[in-house]
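Need C-alpha cells for this chain, all 653 residues.
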Amino acid sequence: RFDAVDALEFYGEPDVTRFYNMQVYWLNFEADSPARMTTRQNGDARGFEVLSYPHTLHLEGNEAYYSESPTDAHWFFDHEIYAGDSYDITLDVDQLAHTGEDAKLIVGLQGLSTWGYGDSAHKRQHALLRLNGEQVGEHEWDNDTYARLVLSVPVNQLQEGANVLTVEATDEEGTLEQFFMVDAVHLTYPRKLVAGEEGLAFRTAARPKARYTIEALPSAEVLAYELHSDGAVTHIVDPLVEVEGEHYRVSLADGTLRGVSLLELSTAEAAEPGSDALLEPARTKTRRHYVVVPASAVKTVAALSYHAPSELEIKNLPAYLVVAPAVFHETLKPFVEHRQGLLVDLEEVYNLFSYGLPEPQALRRFLLLAAEHGAKMALLVGDGHFDYRNFQGSDVPQYVPVALVPNRFGETVSDAYYATPEGALVPKLALGRWPVNSVEELQAVIEKTLAYEGQASHGAVMLADDEPVFRATLDQLAQQLPYPDEVVRINYGEYDALGAKAKLLEAVNSGTGLLAYDGHGGVQLWSSAQLLTAGDVDTMTNEGQYPVLLALGCLSGYFGYPVDMDSLAETLLRAEAKGVVAAFSPSGLTSSVEQQTFATALLQALVTDHQSLGTALLHAYQVVEAQLPASKAQALIQTFNLHGDPALTLRLQ
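Here are the C-alpha cells for all 653 residues:
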C-alpha cells in the first residue's frame, strides 16, 4: 500500500533542448517498466585518494536573438563586437585545485553583419582573447561563419573567484557593418571535491581502488549514487560520513565498473594528470560519474497529475481540425461545431507524440498522421514566439509553438513545417493560424470570421510602393479579378505618403473584399514611408466589412516575437470589429519575382476556382514548387503563412 508518507525515489536529469530545460516522467504499472536502481556497498575506502575532478563552467549568453544568423547559432551575449571594440565576460571559478594540469577554454564566436550578404560578407573577422589581462589566443575566420576556439590555459593563470575573459575585435579593415558576437564559453579546470548546499555531481577517470572524499556537506544525512554509461543508476547504501567542523565529509570507494575489466582500465585510458581525459570528461565505460546530495536537498517534482487514457483516435478523422491548448477550448466549442470539425487538445498531442514535452515536432507528427486519416485542413489557435525557454524574461505563454526553419536569410517562423514531410516542399494539408494571446482576442477573431460568412461582397483595393516592379505585379494581379477596372489602385509616388495612407484607410473603411499590397516591408509596416503601420489599425472603422489581406513584400507576417513587436498581419487580424478577417503574409524575405508566381497562383485558386483560403494556399505552394528552383520554392513556401480560418472563401464581387 502506498500511504501519504511514502515516496518514490528516482534519479533524473533535465532534457535540455532549444525548446525546454525540463523532463516529464511517466509512472506506469506495465510489466516492461524500466529496471529499478541497483544498490551496492561502499567498498574499501582505503584506496588511492582522488583530490580533484575536471569541472566545466558553461556560459551561454542567451540574451540577444538574431534570426539573421546564417548558422545554427542564434542566441548570443548581448553585445555586438565591432573592430576596435571588446567585451568582458566574468568566469567565476571556485575551489580551484592547483594540480599541474592545464585548463581548457573553448569560445564560440559568430561572425555577423548588419547586411551580411553584401561586400562585408567577403571580409575576415579577427578576434583576440585575454584572460585576466594576459593574451591566451587569437583567431581569424571568414565573416558570417562560426568560429570555435579551443585553447589550453595554464592553471596558474586562473584565480579563485572572478576571472575576466576579454574578447576583442582587432581587424583594422573591419567595416561599420561587420561585427561578431559571443555564443558560448566553456572553461574546464581542476576543482576540489568540495560540495555546497545542493551537494556535488562529478565525473572523473576510473582507477582501480580509487577513493573520493567530498567535503563541506551541510548534513550527515547523505545520499550517494553512481551513474553508469548505459543509463543505469546504483545507490551506494553506506557512504562513510565524518564530522568536519560545522560540516560533514563523505568518502566513496569505487565499486566494480560495469562491463569493464582491470586490464581494460590499464590500457584504455590511463588518465594521467594533464591528459585530455581529465579536461573533457564524458560518460564512457572507463569514467566514473557520482552524485552526492544531502537529504535536505533532494528535489520534488514541480507538478503531479493523473493522466487519463487518451480519447483522441487518429483514424477516420473529420476533414476539419482545430488544435488549441485547453485555455481556449470553451470559447472554441461552438465554432468547432459550426465547422463540423474536431477540437484537439494540444497537451494531448504532446503526451502522445513527445512524452508530454512541449516541442514543435510533436505537433508535426500528429498533423502528418492526421493527414493520412481523413484530415484536410487544420486551424492552429494560439500565438507562439522564438523565445521557447524564456531567456528574455517576458513570461509570455507559448500557446502554440512556432516552428523555426532555416531560410535564405537566417531562420524564420513557418506553419507550413507542421504538415510537410521530411524532404518534401508542400504540406499535406491546409493550415491556418489564429495567433491569439487571450480569450478576448479569440472571441474577437471568431466573431469577425462568422460575420464575414454573411457579409456582402466587395471589390478590391491594391496599394503599391514606389518602384515600378511593385506596380507591375499588382497590374497583373488586378487582371485576374472579376472587374479589374473597378479595383481601387493607390500608387505611392502618385500620392505622397500621407495621401496614400489616407486613401487606403478611406477605401478599407468603405468596405473591400480583398486588400493587396506589394512593396518593401517590415514586421510592423509597409514601406519605409510607413504607408500602413500596426499603429494605424486603431483608426480603422470597417466593422462588419472585413477584407482578406494579400501582403507581398517582406516580414509583415512575422509572428515570432514574444513582446512589443506584433506583426502588422497579426494586429489587423486580432483587432476587434475592424481590420481583416484573414491574411496571407510573409514571415521572411523573398524576391518580387518569386512572390508574383505565388500570388498569381493564389488568386487563380481563390477567384477563378473559388477554393477555400487554405486549399488555395496549398495550390499556390504546388505551383511554386513546379515553377521555381527548389531552394527558392522552399524559401517562399516556408515564409508565406495564412493567419485566418483555412475554411473561409473569398467574398469578392
